[in-house]
Amino acid sequence: EQHDRSRCVTMKMLRLRSPSVASLQQDVRCTVRLLDDAELACSIQRDTKGQFLLDHVCNHYNLLERDYFGIRYVDPDKQRHWLDPSKPVVRQMKCKSWPPYTMCFRVKFYPQEPIKIKEELTRYLLYLQLKRDAYHGRLLCPFADAAYVGACIVQAELGEYDPDEHPADYIAEFKLFPKQTLRLERRIMEIHKNEMRGQTPAMAELNLLQRAHTLDTYGVDPHPCKDFTGVTAFLGFTARGFVVFQGNKRIHLLKWEDVSKLKFEGKAFYVIGLQREKKLVLTFHTSTPAACKHLWKCGVEHQAFYKCVKSSQIKTVCSSNIFFKGTRFRYSGRVAKEVIEASLKIQREPPEVCRSETLTIQVPLRSFCSLSHKQLIMNMEPLLPALSSFRDNKETNMDLSKSSHPHLHLQHLPDALIQSDSQSVVTGTVPPLETLRVNHDEDEGEGKEGEDDQMSGSLTISDMVYTPCCSPLPTPVQYEEGGVAMLFQSPAHMLRELHDDPELQAELRAEYERRAAAVEPAPVAAAQRPRPGQEQVAAWLRGAARLVAVATGVLLVALPLLLVLLESDIDVSFLHDIRQTPEFEQFHHEYYCPLRRWLICTVDSLLEDLTGN
């Protein structure tokens, strides 16, 4: 009877503490957008983890090499994230967004060597992702590479060139790149006619992968940031390492073996590594702390995937070195080498690849040039990019051909190496444009060390500026908010507005005078302001105080337990076993008993002195 009563009480407590059975069994609708813009709907439970959803999509494709892929979603604050396979889906969506949930299936880790992919199905999905990257402006490449990539896409989608079926301007009906000029379309048609004959769709897709993986923007998911000077930069993580783009140049390339630590604090993101045997610290600032944390987690995952040899070598990383502070994160999954080894063991018959026609038909939209000011689109995938008209493209092409800087029109990537006059340690900024020069007279007998230095230095990647404005960036903003510039409050931009507005200057001057009259004088305030050395001492004291607090808590827990063991007569099985050990008996007779006698004698002597007896 007592047992039944205690069981009823336990069941009531469980019902109070845990959610209702109906809420746990309630289905949640999810929609996953695939790489060909098709949608896959499914129902999950509220405690279903992300791995189940990823496996569901991979089973839909009959995909085995699934470690390269992931599922992306956007939270209520318009911040993009990768779905964590080890956590429940509903918990990651946060309580502000209600089902049905919409997510996107995308390539998360780009293979360093696509030729090592075992199955044609995996190569086809990677081809779809690269085609999206080129369409949205993420895969930026020189003119010659862009023409070859476009020809591979046309061959894979339309097949052999047929003069009866393909008119003179058949490429103009489709959009392959965000800024598709008439000159580029003609070059794509020439390559499609002459160099792509006899290639099957699978061969054309493989040729595209082989050409794309040599580009500097291959695998780059651009993260918009500002350096300490306020200049916009795009950060990315590739199979080779950490890259930074400004304008049409790659200004930094740190290989993964040279990156020692990635950390963030608030909106500040730090990359600590070595370059030419010197310590290098790159500092960047994101628009929100959530964007900075997403950037840091992406960097930790990519470094673990490409750098580690085994998944057992992956360690938990903390975002800060301060005691009891920071975010802890660990990448859970296989690394690149393990994925390649697993691919070699696949013995099944190759699955059938169901290709779909995914070429985008060109539609008249707003001018591309207006996007650099107020109309930058950064929203959830998939989106149609803002495209330029043919007139704008022709005028832009003519302006570029008449430019006074012909060295910027580079047709081949090896001829576009940029060297900086400054050899000092870089702090996250790029030298002025006047100090950059193109080196056309490279020595062919240069050693491997010189090649590594060139690869890690400045490098012109295209004659176009790397502004993936048609791409849904990791930190999307509203259409009318002004694009990347409105993600940050640039000090220079604010100063320009201040000097241009006399009324604003008068208001600020009056506000300053009012506050100066209400507070203490400025020299006193400056004297009370803590110096950098004092801030370091204060941080050290806070850490020491935390350590003392933890030690005190441990003592408060251990001391009562020790007194129970030594002084009480409680006869519990585990206490009895502890008392019977030789170590405990030795401690009791040699240390505790003399200490107790000394304490008793001391207390007795003090009492005698106080009472006079």
Compact overview of the structure:
The chain has 613 residues and is an alpha+beta fold. It is built from 18 helices and 19 strands. About 19% of the residues have low confidence.
Describe this structure in words.
The chain has 18 helices and 19 strands. With 613 residues, the chain is of the alpha+beta class. The strands form six sheets. It has a five-stranded mixed beta sheet. A hairpin with a 5-residue loop joins strand 1 (28-33) and strand 2 (39-44). Helix 6 crosses helix 7. The chain is elongated, with a radius of gyration of 32 Å. This is FERM domain-containing protein 3. It comes from Denticeps clupeoides. It is found in: Membrane. Residues 436-457 are annotated as: Disordered. It is a single-pass membrane protein.
List keywords for this structure.
alpha+beta, 613 residues, five-stranded mixed β-sheet, five-stranded antiparallel β-sheet, elongated, 18 helices, single chain, 19 strands
Radius of gyration: 32 Å
Quick one: overall form? Answer: elongated
- Rounded average pLDDT: 75
Strand content: 5-15%
Structural class, from helix and strand content? alpha+beta
Annotate the secondary structure layout.
Layout: H1 2-17, H2 21-25, E1 28-33, E2 39-44, H3 50-61, E3 69-74, E4 80-82, H4 89-93, E5 101-107, H5 120-136, H6 143-158, E6 174-175, H7 182-194, H8 201-212, E7 223-226, E8 232-237, E9 241-246, E10 249-255, E11 259-265, E12 268-275, E13 278-285, H9 289-307, E14 317-318, E15 328-329, H10 336-344, E16 360-361, H11 390-401, E17 418-420, E18 436-438, H12 448-456, E19 459-460, H13 491-500, H14 502-518, H15 522-528, H16 532-567, H17 573-579, H18 582-611
Parallel strand pairs: 1-5
Antiparallel strand pairs: 1-2, 3-4, 3-5, 6-16, 7-8, 8-9, 9-10, 10-19, 11-12, 12-13, 14-15, 17-18
GO molecular function: cytoskeletal protein binding
Domain FERM: 28-310
Protein name: FERM domain-containing protein 3
